[in-house]
């Protein structure tokens, strides 16, 4: 799933709002993409925190003094991202730092958000709060692994289901071709998911946010 376009839409929406059609497209994507939803939430919280910060004025002559200390070719060496406002670039950089450093602590100490993985790269899920839904009519051609959530199966899972600190509901329209394993997470499992989440967040951010 290429999240690059949706990361830009999230930033534009937080900055100035979106028209109805792209907003509906973005909301539909956020329903099925956990990484982009987390990216939006982090940006929203960071922007709220920045708004609460007290206004600080630089000393008189600070800008002129700083510019004199910069190399003459500094401006030419710096890459330009014309489609992002300065505030969004700052918030995005802080969000990347929070995602990379905060995920393991969040998963190990606080109540983690639900995580779903599948060997089917084309698998799509609907996520509502802590419930992960395999939609009716959908076919997942591979295994599913869920951490700290509730899996609701309305479609077909052509593989095994691994549930870590999770539950599941198999509706009348749903089928599972393989086995269903339910285990309680150990600290090793939580550490593994923390590392996996860092890798997933980093790949999504680098692939989508700055290209």
Characterize the structure shown.
The strands form 3 sheets. A 4-stranded mixed sheet has the order 1-5-8-11, with no helix packed on it. It starts with a helix and ends with a helix. The chain folds into 2 domains: 4-110 and 200-208, no CATH class; 115-178, no CATH class. The chain has helices spanning 4-16, 20-32, 34-52, 62-69, 74-77, 86-109, 187-208; strands spanning 115-118, 126-128, 131-134, 139-140, 144-147, 150-153, 156-157, 161-164, 167-170, 175-176, 180-183. It is of the alpha/beta class. The model has no long low-confidence stretch (mean pLDDT 74). It is elongated and about 70 Å long.
Secondary-structure element sequence? HHHHHHEEEEEEEEEEEH
Largest sheet: 4 strands, mixed
Number of helical segments?
Answer: 7
What global shape is seen? elongated
List how many beta strands DSSP finds.
11
Average of pLDDT: 74
Q: Strand pairing plus helix content: what structural class?
A: alpha/beta
How large a portion of the residues is in β-strands, by DSSP E?
A: 15-25%
Contiguous uncertain segments of 5+ residues: none
| Beginning-to-end CA distance, first to last residue | 15 Å
Helix content: 40-55%
Strand order within the widest sheet? 1-5-8-11
Query: What integer value in Å does the Rg equal?
Result: 21 Å
